[in-house]
Amino acid sequence: MKYISLNDKAPKVGFREAVFNGLAPDRGLYFPETIMPLPNLFFETIQDLTPEEIGYQALKQFVGDAIPEMALREIISDTLSFDFPLVAIEKRTYALELFHGPTLAFKDVGARFMARCLAYFNSKTKISNSTVLVATSGDTGGAVANGFLDTPGIEVVILYPSGKVSEIQEKQLTTLGKNTNALEVKGDFDACQEMVKKAFLDPGLAHRKLTSANSINVARWLPQMLYFFLAYKNLKSKGEASNVVFSIPCGNFGNCCAGMMAAQLGLPVSHFIAATNSNDTVPRFTVSGKYEPGVTIPTISNAMDVSNPSNFIRILKLYENKIQLLQQSFSSYSFSDTETLQAMQELYKKSGYIADPHGAIGYLGLKKYNGDNDYTGVFLETAHPIKFKETVEAILSEKLEVPAQIQELLDKKKQSHTIAGYEDLKSFLLGNSNG
In the Enzyme Commission scheme, what number(s) does this protein have (predicted)? Predict the structure, then answer.
């Protein structure tokens, strides 16, 4: 398997090089040169396969010969060591809960997979002191910090926007110490993401062997396909796998793009809905055909506060950069904080289900979809409600039980450095002598 740059001005690379590079030298995102659909028999018998087998069959072509079969199977088994339940909400409507991993967020899968791939590569090539540089709008930071904790030869540097993540999210990325450094940025997520991209291409930082654990990295992005395969397996076991529609709360569009990649592999999905908050660049694009990012708007669904989503270019590539082709299987809608809070109340009153703000936006996307009414709808619940404790408790007038892995963080002391711009980041990386 070779990966091309979507800017078309960089050499093709293998999986290992794409993972270590993060971003191509021409600032383009890496994308598989070829995509080979899985055989029909795989989908006909998927309900009989283990999650590990499903993961191996879905990912092996993208890894190629970079990791041998037994090692890859071991990595996938370790990555998928928790549940991904479908919870019935209404008739043929389900929440796909992706928050049962160690940091209670969907990003645990990608972070764990990537960490284990890097650990494998380092063990074989004796490369040491690589630096994983990552921007987070909320959940990525905690998942990456946990996924890479104590990984030999890896230092983690996490940039997060000051005052724009929840208290629990901040605790998850600022209290682990060891090989993790948290940088509190005076700016929004898009500013954090731009600094990360700039650092990759800075020759003055070449010795740091920088890579990214954002969903721009293929090892973070591609494993997210597995949610959709596992949901389909579950639906097929229930006899409800016909005419499936996924509604995905979207920020940087990695999860949505991964689902659409699963469809390219043959997963039977009728339609994808990208549900956003007030940061509505993509919903506007689907109407006007013009991609015009605005200023990032802070919302209660902070992990989706992204105005210029990196992965949308990959989605366009999947559909030959033709908006008419994309629109046949894709819709995108935006929702306000007021609508989000109302959806949280509606879910709780109707079914007793406690959704976080991001999951509630996924639910709203499903409700707004105008397609054939005879479909099975699945919305992604991407984070445990406890991560947005104040918002959820206030709107539902209910006290949430604090999971053990969160409780142990609450009394830990925050450890972070404050930076204002790129030069501060570069100074930190040059001064932090692990490179």
Answer: 4.2.3.1
Tokens 């006909």, located at residue: 44
* Burial (CB count <10 Å: 0-12, 13-18, 19+), residue 194: middle
| Contact of 389 with 400, CB cutoff 8 Å | yes
Q: Is 34 helix (H, G, I), strand (E, B) or coil?
A: coil
Joined tokens for residue 200? 């990759």
Look up residue 371 and give its amino acid. G
Q: Please choose, from the candidates 335, 363, 358, 365, the residue with its C-alpha nearest in 3D space to the C-alpha of residue 274.
A: 365
Q: Report residue 415 CA to chain centroid gap.
A: 25
**Which residue has better confidence, 136 or 43?**
43
What Rg value do the Cα atoms of the chain yield, rounded? 20
Residue 88: pLDDT above 60?
yes
Residue 128 pLDDT grade (very low, low, confident, very high; cuts 50, 70, 90) = low
Q: Which residue has the tokens 């579950």?
A: 234
- Terminal Cα distance for the chain, rounded: 30
Residue 144 has pLDDT above 50, yes or no: yes
Question: Which residues, including other chains, have CB under 8 Å from residue 216's CB and lie 6 or more apart?
Answer: 22, 23, 29, 197, 310, 311
Do 3 and 33 contact (CB within 8 A), yes or no? yes
Residue 271 DSSP SS3? strand
Q: CA–CA separation, 66 vs 52, rounded Å?
A: 19
Q: How confident is the model at residue 56 (pLDDT cuts 50, 70, 90)?
A: very high
Q: Residue 276 in contact with residue 333, Cβ under 8 Å?
A: yes
Q: Let me know: does 219 contact 19? Beta carbons within 8 Å.
A: yes
The string of pLDDT tens digits covering residues 320-360 is 999 999 999 999 999 999 999 999 999 999 999 999 999 99
Q: In what order do the strands lie in the sheet with 93-97?
A: 86-90, 93-97, 376-381, 244-249, 271-276, 330-334
Structure tokens at 254: 């990695």
Cβ 300 vs Cβ 159: under 8 Å: no
Domains of the chain (ranges; CATH) run 72-102+221-402 (3.40.50.1100)
- pLDDT score of 129 more than 80: no
Looking at residue 435, what is its pLDDT? 38
Inter-axis angle of helices 189-200 and 422-431, to 10 degrees? 50
- In the beta sheet, which residues pair with residue 354? none
Tell me the mean pLDDT in the region 248-270.
97
Answering whether pTM is above 0.85, one says yes
